[in-house]
Design a protein that fits this description.
With 140 residues, the chain is of the alpha/beta class. 31% of the residues lie in helices and 20% in strands. It contains 4 helices and 6 strands. Strands 3-2-1-4 form a 4-stranded parallel sheet, with helices on both faces. It is globular and about 45 Å long. The chain starts with 10 loop residues before the first strand and ends in a 6-residue tail after the last strand.
């Protein structure tokens, strides 16, 4: 059964991708398995990444937001901030900027509780370190 916005894990992941066909499957499946809504902007991939993302969109529906960047230049800050703003407007409290070739290790399956334990809500936005590993591309 699909979780409502008040029931699902309280975090979203934002990422910008280009030609990530060799790692995009693991990125999307892993973040969705953790309960995150994923916001992705494709920057003109020519290797099938956007098509693969749209296939996953058919599987995950609103839990995967996919857009295509019409600019040929790589305006990462602009695009990531736009995705972050979209996630904020969708009601997410925690937003994780990630690369498609990264795997994050929280040490628990309760990611909302992990994030809540980092921050007591008494100050403004904060940055935290989280262990991660870069995924080695397969070359496919």
């Amino acid at each position: 059964m699909k979780k409502s916005i008040t029931e699902r894990t309280d975090f979203a992941v934002v990422m910008m991708v280009k030609d990530e066909i060799d790692v995009i499957d693991e990125a999307i499946v892993t973040w969705r398995a953790r309960g995150a809504r994923v916001y992705v902007c494709d920057n003109g991939s020519t290797d099938g990444t956007l098509e693969r993302l749209n296939t996953y969109k058919g599987v995950y529906g609103d839990e995967l937001h996919v857009e295509s960047d019409p600019e040929t230049a790589y305006f990462m800050e602009k695009r990531i901030n736009a995705l972050k703003d979209r996630a904020l407007s969708d009601g997410f409290r925690w937003i994780i900027p990630a690369d498609a070739d990264e795997t994050w290790h929280f040490g628990t399956n309760d990611f909302s509780a992990y994030l809540a334990g980092l921050y007591d809500g008494t100050h403004g936005p904060r940055w935290f370190s989280v262990p991660y590993v870069d995924v080695s591309p397969t070359g496919n």
